[in-house]
Design goal:
Number of helices: 4
Shape: globular
Strand content: over 45%
Low-confidence stretches: 1-17
Radius of gyration: 19 Å
Mean pLDDT: 84
Largest sheet: 9 strands, antiparallel
Number of domains: 1
Structural class: mainly beta
Order of helices and strands: HHEEEHEEHEEEE
Helix content: 10-25%
Number of strands: 9
Length: 173
């Protein structure tokens, strides 16, 4: 960002020039969004962008998540980054999205977190490259007593040659 700004100040003629063909097409927007992940050992579930209790009662109220993408002309691949600063987040003491459990088991903690999603091949177009997508999140969540917990979640998946490899780690401290 800083280098781009400096470059535009030093060489204003670049602003008027057409982008090179390999630059891709940048697009920005926002959309309603919600997702959930279990950690690797299946003992915790984190839900982002919606209240799972409401969802199980057919109330669909999702958070808005801004995103930016770039359509690359090579292999028709889209690279996407989405960032949300105040995304609803709850951590549950079980690893499955289970409406019956959401009704009777309270979450370990809840609140909002900062979430960043990246995907180097949004449409999953077959290419020579490894398809990779990830999510990172952090924040301070509260338990039912109002005690604060530091929250971190990292999720990363790769897909190459029909092999899918995913890891998810949910931390409350």
């Amino acid at each position: 960002m800083i280098l781009l700004f400096i470059s535009l100040l030093l060489v204003p003629a670049l602003v008027a020039a057409d982008p090179p063909t390999e630059s891709g097409i940048v697009y920005r927007g926002q959309g309603t969004w919600g997702i959930y992940y279990a950690n690797d050992d299946g003992t915790r579930l984190v839900v982002y962008g919606f209240d799972p209790v409401e969802y199980c009662q057919f109330i669909y109220d999702f958070d808005v998540l801004p995103f930016q993408g770039m359509q690359l002309p090579v292999d028709d691949v889209a690279v996407v980054v989405a960032k949300g600063e105040e995304i609803r987040t709850t951590v549950w003491p079980f690893g499955d999205f289970n409406c019956a459990l959401f009704e009777i088991v309270p979450p370990l903690a809840g609140g909002t977190s900062r979430v960043v999603l990246t995907d180097n091949n949004y449409y999953g177009v077959p290419t020579e490259r490894t398809n990779s997508w990830s999510l990172t999140a952090h924040g301070v969540l509260l338990d039912a007593s109002g005690d604060e917990y530091g929250f971190q979640h990292s999720f990363h998946c790769t897909w190459k040659d029909d092999r899918l490899n995913c890891h998810s780690k949910i931390r409350l401290r």
